[in-house]
Amino acid sequence: MSPTDLYCNVQDEQSASIRVIFHAVGKMLSGPAPWRYTESGRALMYREIQSEPFVSVLVYPQRLSATKAPALEHFRAEELICIDLRMTCPNEWVYPFESGRS
């Protein structure tokens, strides 16, 4: 399965914060709400999978996502789920063939 979206949103000298989004055919029958309302607005509710290196995941129906879904010939957007991963990776994992990167 290839990701629908993949990008680095924050990077420093030691690590990079990466977001990977997948879409899959399926329906969510139950589960926690993907959003929490805070004083600063609506925030996604990721669940931490592990702390070192940091990995979190959020799975929710595509119809609740602002992310553009792939167009599938035999399926409607209501039949898609969004799998949204955020992780922090050491730079040597992100750029394994570069030495002395600045």
Polypeptide structure, described:
With 102 residues, the chain is mostly beta strands. The protein has one domain (5-94). Helix content is 4%, strand content 49%. The protein is built from one helix and seven strands, in the order βββββββα. It has one helix spanning 91-94; strands at residues 5-11, 15-25, 35-38, 41-44, 47-51, 54-61, 80-90. It has a five-stranded antiparallel β-sheet. A hairpin with a 3-residue loop joins β1 (5-11) and β2. The chain is globular and about 45 Å long. The model has no long low-confidence stretch (mean pLDDT 84).
Concise overview:
With 102 residues, the protein is mainly beta. The protein has 1 helix and 7 strands. The radius of gyration is 16 Å and the shape is globular.
Task: Give the overall shape, derived from the CA principal axes.
Answer: globular
- Count of individual domains: 1
Put simply, the count of helices is 1
Task: Catalogue the unreliable spans.
Answer: none
Structural class based on helices, strands and sheet pairing:
mainly beta
**Average pLDDT rating:** 84
Say what oligomer this is. Answer: single chain
Strand residue content: over 45%
Number of strands: 7
Q: Topology of this structure?
A:
Layout: E1 5-11, E2 15-25, E3 35-38, E4 41-44, E5 47-51, E6 54-61, E7 80-90, H1 91-94
Antiparallel strand pairs: 1-2, 2-7, 3-4, 5-6, 6-7
Descriptive tags:
globular; 102 residues; mainly beta
